[in-house]
Amino acid sequence: MEKGVRLSLYTDLSLRLLVYLGGNPDGKPVGTARISEQLRVSTHHLHKVAQGLRKLGYVETVSGRLGGLRLLTPMDQLRIGDVVEAMEGSGRLADCKRGPCALNGACTLKTALDAAERNFLDELKKYTLADVVQGPTLVRLHRLLRAA
Questions:
Q1: 9-146: CATH number
Q2: Residue 30 above 70 pLDDT?
Q3: 3-state DSSP call for residue 145?
Q4: What Å distances lie between residue 96 and 76, 108, 120, 121, CA to CA?
Q5: Which pLDDT does position 141 carry in this prediction?
Q6: Could you tell me if 38 and 74 are in contact, meaning their C-beta atoms sit under 8 angstroms apart?
Q7: In sequence order, which ranges of 41-89 are alpha helices (DSSP H)?
Q8: Strand, coil or helix: what is 30?
Q9: 1 — pLDDT class (breaks 50, 70, 90)
Q10: For the ranges 28-42, 62-76, 92-106, 113-127, which has the lowest average pLDDT?
Q11: Residue 132 and residue 142: Cα distance in Å, rounded?
């Protein structure tokens, strides 16, 4: 059994898509079929993630034969913690409204879990997409984007 805090698949794919698009040196749209193949994710999931990121203003979808996805928000302005918070929401570690709890209204566990979550998000907010799309990550992304 895996332990620790886990991001949802939706958030994980959102971050991977942003990193992928952040490594695109010319900023031209990249087709979703190509992205799906290179990131090894289903096209269906990729479309759902792209739609969510588009609604948040992080990516742009371009129609047409040369269309696809491209990053809309500058990499140095896109904070990883903001993306995670937008995708996951906050206060999710303990959902006290889901089901009966004998301690409801008298429990301080939620306070502790909310503080831990806030610290987690605050730490992620220290990093921008530009911070994580560099070094070996950027080299690998350039190889992927040149392939195919």
A1: 1.10.10.10
A2: yes
A3: helix
A4: 36, 11, 20, 20
A5: 87
A6: no
A7: 43-55, 80-88
A8: strand
A9: low
A10: 92-106
A11: 14
